[in-house]
Design goal:
The chain is of the alpha+beta class. The protein is built from three helices and eight strands. The strands form two sheets. Strands 1-2-3-4 form a four-stranded antiparallel beta sheet, with helices on one face. The protein has a four-stranded mixed beta sheet with strand order 7-6-5-8, covered by helices on one side. β3 and β4 form a beta hairpin.
Amino acid sequence: MTPGMSLPFAAVDDQVAVESPLFDAVITPPASLGDRGFSTFMAITLAIVCLIDLALMAAALWWAILFLTGNLIFLMAAFIAVRRARERSERVVVEGGQLRLERHWKGGPGCADTLPLFGLRLVRVRDGAGHCRRLELHSREQRLCFAADLTPSEREAFADALGRCLHRGGFPVAMPVQSY
């Protein structure tokens, strides 16, 4: 090579190919009422209790009014507490040879565990009736339980979908079944 001579370099593409995940699923607890349905239920319950309180007030049964209103307060507090506890989610993402399990509460940052796909086992734990009670991920010394918010049949379908996706991606994942 002579001085001042430059070597030709291959043109570098500035756009890096963004690899989409092999598997990406979000698991949330079931909710029978949305925000609007929950508000409507609470408003109707409050209106019914107020009407009954008016009838009890007309009958001069103040002690019954206190009892009924106290029950309403406890009922509303219980419904709100249960609703807040259901504001969680689990996200299962498979990309780059790893499975990432993210847990979020109320949409905020949560915890995340990452497991390598090499040697990964997806274990279905069944009860005596044959229902899938729990899904576990085993990788060396780590064991993670997940998908607790799904029904047994949904857990089966989720495990099958995850297993098929990993198999298509070329990652052999053991899927043993254990008794509860």
